[in-house]
Amino acid sequence: MPSSGKKRQDKEATTSRVLPPDNKYASQTDFAGDGWRVFKIMAEFVNGFEKMSDTGPAVSVFGSTRVTPEQMEYRLAERMGHLLAGKGFSVITGGGAGVMEAANKGAQQAGGISIGFNIELPLQQRPNAFIDRERLLTFQYFFVRKVMFLKYSQAFIVLPGGFGTMDELFEAATLIQTQKSGCFPIILLGSDYWGGYYRWMQEMMFREKRYIAKKDLDFIFLEDDPEEVVGIIERFYPEGYKLNF
User: Fold this and answer.
1) Ranges of each domain in the chain
2) Each residue of 100-117: pLDDT tens digit?
3) pLDDT confidence bin for 13, thresholds 50/70/90
4) pTM assigned to the model
5) pLDDT recorded at residue 31
6) Burial of 54 by CB count in 10 Å (0-12 exposed, 13-18 middle, 19+ buried)?
7) How far is CA 184 from CA 58, 173, 232, 242, 244, in A?
8) Which residues are within 8 A (CB) of 66 and not within 5 positions of it... i.e. 6 or more apart?
9) Which of the listed CATH numbers 3.40.50.1000, 3.40.50.450, 3.20.20.140, 3.30.1330.10 matches domain 34-235?
């Protein structure tokens, strides 16, 4: 009969067999070992904090990269960026094409500050042409980039988009709900796209299942009018703007 020591060794041998990542994922880091990777992560945080340290009130705009200039969502994002800049807000986007490009374009053409948090991707996202050059930050790590969005934004404006857009939306909602971040408005812009989801949160998540509390929806808004979006943000801060953490 095998001893308990032998069983323990067999279990350890079985559970320790974790293969290394595929080359296409392993090659996305500049370092051979995870221990050294922390310095790259630290450098991204330091660079981001330094570049954003003198930024005033800012709003992040999210949405699909697949939107083209001919589409209504592009024009809506451009209008949104223009209005925000006119009210003194810096406009932050993910730095890419589509909705992000449109919001940066609107902000820049209105004479405002246009910021891009670009991300290095295997298919190589290129920064759009409407970001202030000194306000372009490029990240390798999504989680560092998320910290920058969350720390420096006085609001999230979320236009129609896919998984990445939803990721930013849920990340913000979760951190506000769990009180890991100060509360700020999350505004879903475009009721044709977001209306069903907004009602589902109210009716299913809250009223039927009680998986969230009523107050968890107090900072999430559904809107179609860019001018009212600006009003929501301004009314949300009667005592002035501040960083979220």
Assistant:
1) 34-235
2) 999 999 999 999 999 999
3) low
4) 0.90
5) 54
6) exposed
7) 12, 9, 10, 10, 8
8) 97, 98, 162
9) 3.40.50.450
